[in-house]
Amino acid sequence: MPHLLGQLYALTPRALHQLSSPEEFVMPHSVFASVPSIAPRRPLRVAVELTGAGHHPAAARIAGNVPLTGPDYWVDLTAGPDILDLAARPAVVQRIQAADLRDAQQARERIRAEVAAEGRDPNSVTVLVDIEVLIAPDSRSARTELALLDETLGVPHQWSSLTYVGTAEGLGSLLADIRAADVADGVTLLPLALPKVLERIVDGTMPWLERRGLAIASDAVDEALSRFGRIRPARAS
Fold first, then answer.
1. Which of 28, 71, 129, 208 could share a disulfide with 184, CB 3.0–4.6 Å?
2. Is 161's pLDDT higher than 90?
3. CA 175: distance to chain centroid?
4. pLDDT higher than 50, residue 38
């Protein structure tokens, strides 16, 4: 299994404001001691939840951020063998919030056990963990943007779940590790600032995952960008 987190700035809500650099955070290896080394069979799913000018309460007060056109919007950015329908009954998608990666992994295990107890295939339910994200061209810039948001708010933002502050490629690496370690079947990304974080997910994180065969971007990517009057850059042939 690849080393989880490594140089990434992927932190629990409690840890985020205690660390001065991403290199200081190390996830105990015992968290994933029981994880098999084989590659997962199910594809990684990556969804986003868009709201206002971003999930940070001060996002609308920062120049350059643009509010979402229309109501709050959840969409799966990846193509897969099944449709992720939040309204389906019985449930085929379970969204979870977690204090840390161990918490998320244990929640997934509980959900799968409950589904099996109902006589259903545990693989019929996709467990997505929420991750609040702020990404920039480099980690220092991302931390600076977060500091500006918090300064504008007047108090540090209270995180609702897992948090990632860093680069688009670093986020891709974190998502790959989350899936490989069976922490979750995928994620719902909560961009703290819009539309730039969404654009960096589309332009940086999704291509990083696609190049490694971990995910395939769906046409929903274009739909999400269109909510801000943006289009996906043309890819080189």
1. 129
2. yes
3. 7
4. no
